[in-house]
Design a protein that fits this description.
The protein contains seven helices and two strands, in the order H-E-E-H-H-H-H-H-H. With 169 residues, it is mainly α.
Length: 169
């Protein structure tokens, strides 16, 4: 439990203090805090995940002044996360206490797991923020670019910051 609380603080501080101002070409935004939610233990319950998603999203909303957009996207992603984990479960299942990270389950599995959830998260954020489909193509480009940027950053942080002896963020 303590490593997860530390992960919560680290990902939130990274998002608010550093990544908040990191934008590529005015279309690609990094929502690194999603890494904390994606890397919750596999056996974490849906309600716990949704509450954590709401907490993280609400804190990000407070600092971004986005009035619940991140909270809504995080709660929805945490709701469908368990169904998606069941869909991508290997034949032998998972060990207890396993974290769905690229270093533990492999890069290919992690991308299969994280890409759809990240895409859905970003679709919700950007289309709720737009409030309409008037700029559909521009918004969709933002979604795709931001999904790639976020996923790459989450993977890079997993490989750089964590040795195989320590718990994975």
């Amino acid at each position: 439990m303590l490593p997860q609380a530390l992960n919560f603080i680290v990902y939130l501080l990274l998002q608010i203090l550093i990544v908040r101002n990191l934008v590529l070409f005015d279309v690609s935004f990094c929502f690194l805090y999603l890494g904390f939610l994606l890397l919750l233990p596999i056996e974490a319950g849906v309600i716990v995940c949704m509450l954590l998603g709401f907490s993280v999203g609400l804190l990000v909303d407070i600092f971004y002044n986005t009035f619940g957009i991140h909270a809504a996207a995080c709660v929805f992603v945490m709701y469908i996360r368990q169904y998606w984990i069941e869909a991508v479960t290997p034949r032998g299942g998972y060990d207890l206490g396993i974290t769905p990270s690229p270093k533990v389950l492999g890069l290919q599995w992690f991308i299969t797991y994280a890409l759809p959830l990240t895409l859905i998260h970003h679709l919700l954020i950007f289309f709720i923020e737009m409030g309409s489909f008037d700029l559909f193509y521009f918004t969709f480009i933002k979604v795709l670019a931001s999904t790639a940027f976020t996923l790459v950053m989450v993977i890079v942080i997993q490989y750089i910051l964590h040795s195989s002896r320590r718990p994975v963020l």
